TrEMBL record:
<dbReference type="InterPro" id="IPR009057">
    <property type="entry name" value="Homeodomain-like_sf"/>
</dbReference>
<keyword id="KW-0805">Transcription regulation</keyword>
<dbReference type="InterPro" id="IPR050109">
    <property type="entry name" value="HTH-type_TetR-like_transc_reg"/>
</dbReference>
<feature type="domain" description="HTH tetR-type">
    <location>
        <begin position="7"/>
        <end position="67"/>
    </location>
</feature>
<dbReference type="Pfam" id="PF00440">
    <property type="entry name" value="TetR_N"/>
</dbReference>
<feature type="DNA-binding region" description="H-T-H motif">
    <location>
        <begin position="30"/>
        <end position="49"/>
    </location>
</feature>
<keyword id="KW-0804">Transcription</keyword>
<protein>
    <submittedName>
        <fullName>TetR/AcrR family transcriptional regulator</fullName>
    </submittedName>
</protein>
<keyword id="KW-0238">DNA-binding</keyword>
<dbReference type="InterPro" id="IPR001647">
    <property type="entry name" value="HTH_TetR"/>
</dbReference>
Length: 183
């Protein structure tokens, strides 16, 4: 069972590790590359997490914690455009702050089978957007499109170093992908 990260150092470490796991996959990501990415020795990294496996599990767990927080915040809202807009706002803010975790979540869509709990992630998204994908395929495709656009655009915003300018553009793009008119 992965431990919960401490605020600050572990969160940054998890995000950097998640980015490497997303880019190279679990097998191709070495402890040395993980340690180098966060400016630690291998021993220093192992002080925070006892193994590469524990770090990988903690990165996935942290992404789920953040996703669950968003789902919990929108759960009291009635289904509809306002709920979807709020979910997109919250998810975009998380994505802008944690690009590595977003990369790791996005990898689960492009490299199926690496995430042992992918089905739980899909259920969480279905709850967040109040959808039954088997009965509403066109809408499910729009939701995946909106979330995919968010993932790519937030990664680009981080690369450009201009989250403030990009945020409203990302939200407008995601909202458009859902087929909603701007309010």
């Amino acid at each position: 069972m992965p431990r919960q990260p401490r605020t600050g150092v572990d969160e940054k470490l998890l995000d950097a590790a998640a980015a490497l796991f997303a880019r190279h996959g679990f097998e191709q990501t070495s402890l040395k590359s993980l340690a180098d990415a966060v400016g630690l020795s291998k021993a220093g990294l192992l002080h925070h997490f006892p193994s590469k496996e524990a770090l990988f599990e903690a990165a996935w767990a942290q992404s789920r914690v953040l996703s669950k927080q968003v789902a919990d915040l929108v759960a009291p809202m009635p289904a509809g455009h306002a709920r979807e807009r709020r979910a997109l706002e919250l998810l975009t803010d998380v994505a802008l702050d944690r690009p590595g975790l977003v990369s790791l979540l996005f990898r689960s869509m492009t490299a199926p089978g690496e995430d042992p709990q992918q089905a739980q992630d899909e259920l969480l998204i279905n709850e967040m957007f109040v959808i039954d994908p088997e009965k509403e395929l066109p809408r499910a495709v729009r939701i995946v499109g909106a979330l995919s656009a968010m993932a790519v655009l937030t990664l680009l915003a981080n690369k450009e170093g201009d989250k403030t300018t990009w945020r409203p553009l990302i939200l407008a793009t995601c909202y458009d992908a859902l087929g909603h008119q701007e309010a």
